[in-house]
Inverse folding.
């Protein structure tokens, strides 16, 4: 079983200023939790127990959030605020957290290669720190990816989703080789942010990857792209060219990727997660209905 995961969380979040001037976008709330907590809980649910978070400047609050606050816990416990105390139960997850800094933001690939010593020659998961996957499936996306990888241990597996063709230039895009099962296909090639005119499909990376340790060597051989950035997609292409098989597993109609990268996508995510809140969602829904009736 794969026990290690890397969460890249060093991006500056400039598209969401001034909201992200003094706090990481990964710590922005979605309902009653920060974005990154959903991701950590997702990883814990599939058995991951060691997580390396790649941080940068102004990201200290991420470390503080997953650290136990003994003074706060004692205060809540002694004052009889059991419901509030229980909301901090995530502090007791069976996970070791590790942190390292990407001081110079040179792209996702560069962030991932900061974890070379951490993975120690083992396959690992990459889960982008600003992307939450919602699923009402019995087996969510990451669980399906791990099940497939268990039967294909020498391969890599990427989570994907279909996007509009006019959006393909924002993502890494998969060129399919052949369909294997419903929502599962073998990958022929991957292309970083192609124009709609040359894109081989509209199947885009969806922020979850299972990678072999070979990806670290491939990242060392990637030529820097625009702005000197190292693209993970280019390293994945090297793996494919060197004979490592890759597979795409897609989100179903009962799943959605929430990309906390722009204000409108953040607003949409916050509303959806707030409406799903068991305690306050109904009240919020009634408030929205009254506002729309005005």
């Amino acid at each position: 079983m794969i026990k290690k995961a890397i969460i890249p969380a060093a991006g500056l979040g400039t598209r969401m200023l001034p909201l992200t001037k003094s706090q990481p976008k990964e710590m922005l709330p979605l309902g009653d939790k920060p974005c990154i907590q959903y991701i950590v809980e997702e990883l814990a649910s599939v058995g991951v127990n060691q997580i390396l978070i790649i941080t940068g400047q102004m990201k200290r609050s991420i470390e503080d959030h997953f650290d136990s606050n003994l003074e706060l816990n004692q205060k809540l416990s002694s004052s009889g605020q059991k419901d509030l105390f229980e909301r901090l139960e995530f502090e007791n997850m069976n996970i070791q957290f590790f942190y390292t800094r990407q001081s110079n933001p040179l792209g996702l690939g560069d962030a991932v290669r900061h974890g070379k010593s951490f993975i120690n020659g083992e396959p690992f998961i990459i889960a982008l720190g600003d992307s939450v996957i919602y699923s009402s499936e019995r087996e969510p996306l990451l669980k399906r990816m791990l099940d497939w990888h268990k039967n294909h241990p020498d391969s890599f597996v990427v989570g994907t989703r279909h996007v509009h063709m006019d959006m393909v230039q924002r993502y890494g895009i998969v060129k399919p080789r052949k369909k294997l099962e419903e929502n599962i296909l073998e990958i022929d090639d991957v292309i970083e942010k192609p124009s709609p005119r040359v894109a081989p499909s509209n199947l885009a990376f969806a922020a979850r990857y299972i990678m072999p340790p070979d990806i670290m060597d491939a990242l060392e051989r990637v030529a820097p792209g625009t702005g000197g950035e190292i693209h993970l997609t280019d390293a994945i292409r090297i793996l494919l060219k060197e004979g490592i098989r890759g597979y795409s597993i897609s989100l179903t109609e009962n799943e959605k990727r929430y990309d906390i990268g722009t204000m409108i996508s953040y607003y949409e995510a916050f509303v959806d997660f707030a409406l799903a809140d068991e305690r306050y969602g109904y009240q919020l829904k009634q408030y929205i209905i009254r506002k729309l009736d005005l």
